Structure formats: C-alpha cells, structure tokens
TrEMBL record:
Signal peptide: none annotated. One of its GO terms (molecular function) is metal ion binding. PANTHER family: D-GALACTONATE DEHYDRATASE, D-GALACTONATE DEHYDRATASE-RELATED. Its cofactor is Mg(2+). This is Galactonate dehydratase. One of its GO terms (biological process) is D-galactonate catabolic process. Residues 126-228 form the Mandelate racemase/muconate lactonizing enzyme C-terminal domain. It comes from the Eukaryota. InterPro entries: DgoD-like, Enolase-like_C_sf, Enolase-like_N, Enolase_C-like, Galactonate_deHydtase, Mandel_Rmase/mucon_lact_enz_CS, Mandelate_racemase_C, Mandelate_racemase_N_dom. Keywords: Lyase, Magnesium, Metal-binding.
Amino acid sequence: MGKIAKIEYFRVPPRWLFVKITDDAGIVGWGEASLEGHTQAVEGCLDAWIDQYTGMEADDIEHIWQKTWRMGFYRGGPVFMSALAGIDIALWDIKARKLNVPIYQLLGGKVRSTLKVYAWIGGDRPADIEEQALSRKAQGFTAVKMNGTEDVGWLDSPHTLDSCVERVKAVKALGLDAGVDFHGRVHRPMAKQLAAALAEHKPMFIEEPLLSEHMEGIKSLSALTTIPIALGERLHSRWDVKPFLEASCIDILQPDISHVGGISELRRIAAMAEAYDVAIAPHCPLGPIALAACIQVDATLANFAIQEMSLGIHYNTGGHDLLSYIKNPEIWDVKDGYIKLMEGPGLGIDIDEDKVRELSKGAEAWVSPGFVGPGGEWREW
C-alpha cells in the first residue's frame, strides 16, 4: 500500500489538462481531466480536492471514486466528473505500474490484441475533404469521421444539407467508412431530413443527431432511420446513460473517459451497454493520456466497436498533437485500420514530463468556438 503524497495538474496546449499523482514510495501515475472549453472550472475542482485526497491510500481507487461521488452532496456533471477522471486514471496507472502490468490485466484481462480506430477529417466548417480523406487512408485508417454541417437554422433550407451528402459520397468512393457527426447543431426539423438523405449512402453512424437533452426526439428519430445512432460525450455517468439504454434509442454509446469519472466508470457504463446489445465507441478527441486510458478499457470489452483518435484533428493547433507529449509514439502506428494493444505497464505510454512542465508555463485555456446566425442569434456549435 502507498499513500497519495502529491497531486499536480498541468494545463498544456492545445487544450488539455493532465493530472500527475505521486505516492509516498515515489511511484507516479498520470491522468487526464481535459474538459474542452472549461479548463479553469476543472482546475478549481481539483484545487478543492487536493487537500482532501492527499494522504489517502492510492490503492483504494473505488473508495476514492465513491468518496467523490457520494460525499459532496452535489454530484455528477461535466466539471466534477472530468476532475474525478483525472484522479481515477492516474490512480489506475499507479496501481498497475506498481504491479508491473498493463491496466487491462487488472480489469479481467484482454479480449483482443488489436483495436479498430478512426480519425477526423474536415473541421467545424467542413468543405473539400477528399484530400484529407486520402491522407488518412495513407496513414493506415479505413474509417473517418466528419462534421455533417456548418451551423444550421432551426428550420433551414433543405439545400443546406446537400453538401453533407456529397462529402459522404466522396469519402465512400475512396473506400473509407464514414461516421457523420451532427454535433448537436442540427435541430429536429433538419435532423430528420439529413438522416433520411444519408440513409442510402450507409454512413458508419450518425453522431449526436440531436442533443442528448432531447431523448424523446432521439427515440423518435431512431424509429425513422436504419442508420446506427451514436451519442454519449455529454452523458457523464451510468445514471445519465441509463434512460437511453432503457428507451432502446441508441445503437452506439460514446462515453468520454475524461468526462465520466475515468476508467472505473467507463468500465461500468460499458457493462450496462452490453446488457442492452449496444456497442461502445469511446469519444476521445483529447490527449494521449485519455486515449491510452480508453484503450486499456477497450481491450477488455466484448462490445467494443471502434476508438476515436485525435491524431491531426483540427483542434490540435500550434504544433501540438496527440503524440507530442509521449516518448513512445510508435505504439499507435495504424495499419489496415487497427492499432496494436500496448503491452507496457500502467497506461502503456511514456509521458515526457519535462515537455509537459515546459509547455504548461503560461498555457492559456482553450475557448470553445461558437456560431452566430444571420440575425445575431447564438447557434449550437
């Protein structure tokens, strides 16, 4: 056993928040508490918890998880659960490194040695994506995801949807599978039309066709389309997920390990989904620690489908990308649409701490983009 001796966090570009925990034997674990656009809020939460958790047994991961969930009266939500994720992932990393095994060995062992992955093409205002799709194909990917639309009015011209269909057709013509992310920016009158227009082109899935706050709309849409419906990045616990599973209105669940309280809760959510025949495709447009943590869980899941990678995603600017902060980037070489499962201890990645500390100096918090409509109104981004 070893007690938590120190908890630190590092805001690093392009938009990530890393957590480092050291136990009293000097064993180090890394977690990721990134919450896009709300870095300061998560940092404030971590500040409030550092004194509470210092001195607790680092091995007691579930006890610490339950303390966070049950002892604060107010609980859940993106800020609390992202802060908890940073701590939870780091504690799993410490425990597995202490035992000199990958984390997946502590979760029952692996059921696969390779994992299917996909990458992003396009950006928030997608245009010509054929060149980007060809680049992804050259990197070894067989599946990609793109935003479906730019900002769309609540009831817009049907022609605003035409370009999405053409982009999907172009990507499919290159032999790639394509997921289409509606990003919650398409409201119900338009989402129904876009789903119908895409159906014959067989996208891999449509993601957040409506915001998850509109479960009744998602349930209605699921009855109208044969395209698999995916969502989950804005659901932050098994209790948030439960009504969607009970309503049988989604086909692919996309929890974000950095927003659901870490490895502990992602594993539980996946087990719930398996009981409803729902696939797991973890949301992860984030940093290397979040991706490594996802992969450790993915390796153990019967219902794992595909893993998002942020390699070259349009948010990664300023020369900082998925592989910038690790010393063993070769672990994520993509071949025929798959990566190999890491075999090293803990998370299986080697964090470049010197680089983390250097680039965290003066790092600014990332601010979420936004869309403004023609009348000056705010639109969903």
